[in-house]
Amino acid sequence: MEPSDIELVTLAKAAQDERAFAALVRRHQARLRAFLIRLCGNPHLADDIAQETFMKAHTGLSGFKGGGSFRSWLYAIAYREFLQDARKTKAAARLEDALKENAAARKADRHEAGPLEAGMSLDLRRALAGLDAMERATILLCDAAGFSHTEAASVLSTPLGSVKTYVARARDKMRAALSAEPPTAKESSLPTPANGKHYAL
Amino acid sequence: MPSDTIPPDPMEDMLKTDFDALAGRLERDRFAERLLFKLGAKRRARLGIVAFASGLGAAVAASQFTSMVAALAPALAETPPEMDAAGVSPHLLAAFILAGALAATALVLRQDF
């Protein structure tokens, strides 16, 4: 039987067992990165944030007291890193990168989907991009990554009631976006620095 | 006829399917290995620094061994006879001190301190 997260954390803390921490990394990295990729829309930035998250988790493991799940604690670090990065860069430079990548992805859609975009429809991408960061984070955590509302509240350091509101609002916005007429080529361009939605905080 | 069942939401299904597929693809790349190598690099750098410092310390201590023995000799002249009987020579005592320093280094390497 595979050891639980808490058992691995205890082992990593008590015996300074690098293998225990490595097991935690292998268990959580893919879904954490998927969350970050869909949250910030840029795979390279998402991997940088994920790396920083695991580095911080490694050095700050003694700070994990086990009150909640390890997964929530890890995603909370990742979300804080994402916010910090977004504030630090003032969004503009990153937006430009995201725009370029999204433009490339749209171009690739016509020919061949990229490895990280394969399977994700342009409509879904556009609908996600139309949400603000908090709405996007809550709907990704609750509807995509399988977090409970309580866990999401802990990750986002937000009251439970607010999480429910964000989820409901995000679902409404996404349904509206998905049922809307496909935009014209001009409208379909993902957020620009002028409308700033991609990184709106 | 009105229905009281909530139809499955295609949007939520789409999100979940996309997320699971993306995570599945990310599971197969080498991110974890690269990250663990980086984490290990920090530990290896620490080991290298400690090993270098220990080597330097041992070399300095070895070069001072004779003078350490000379310094300990007068102190041992005043040792009680039972210690003399146990064969505590200045050389042995100096060797004990160096062994203690090595043991302390080993504890630091094990990150006990």
Description:
The complex is a heterodimer of chains A (201) and B (113). Chain A is mainly α and 201 residues long. Chain A has a single domain, classed as PhyR, sigma-like (SL) domain (Butyryl-CoA Dehydrogenase, subunit A, domain 3). The longest helix of chain A is centred in the first third of the chain and has 23 residues. Chain A is globular and about 55 Å long. The C terminus of chain A is likely disordered. With 113 residues, chain B is mainly α. The longest helix of chain B is centred in the middle third of the chain and has 33 residues. Classes of the chains: A mainly alpha (201), B mainly alpha (113). At the A-B interface, helix 2, helix 3, helix 7 and helix 9 of A face helix 1 and helix 2 of B. Chain A: This is RNA polymerase subunit sigma-70.
Question: What's the arrangement of secondary structure elements?
Answer:
The complex is a heterodimer of chains A (201) and B (113).
Chain A: H1 5-14, H2 18-40, H3 43-59, H4 70-89, H5 92-111, H6 122-129, H7 133-144, H8 149-156, H9 160-179
Chain B: H1 10-27, H2 31-63, H3 65-77, H4 81-85, H5 90-109
Helix pairs in contact in B: 2-5, 3-5
Query: What's the CATH H-level homologous superfamily of chain A?
Result: PhyR, sigma-like (SL) domain
- Largest interface, by Cβ-Cβ below 8 angstroms: which chains and how many residues each? A-B, 38 and 25 residues
- Low-confidence parts of chain A, pLDDT < 50 over ≥5 residues? 185-201
Mean pLDDT of chain A: 80
How many angstroms separate the termini of chain A? 42 Å
Mean pLDDT figure of chain B: 74
What's the SSE pattern of chain A?
Answer: HHHHHHHHH
Q: How many β-strand stretches of chain B? A: 0
The major pleated sheet of chain A works out as: none
Q: State the low-pLDDT regions of chain B, or none.
A: 1-6
Determine the number of helices of chain B (DSSP H or I, runs of at least 4 residues).
5
Helix and strand pattern of chain B: HHHHH
CA-CA gap between termini of chain B: 74 Å
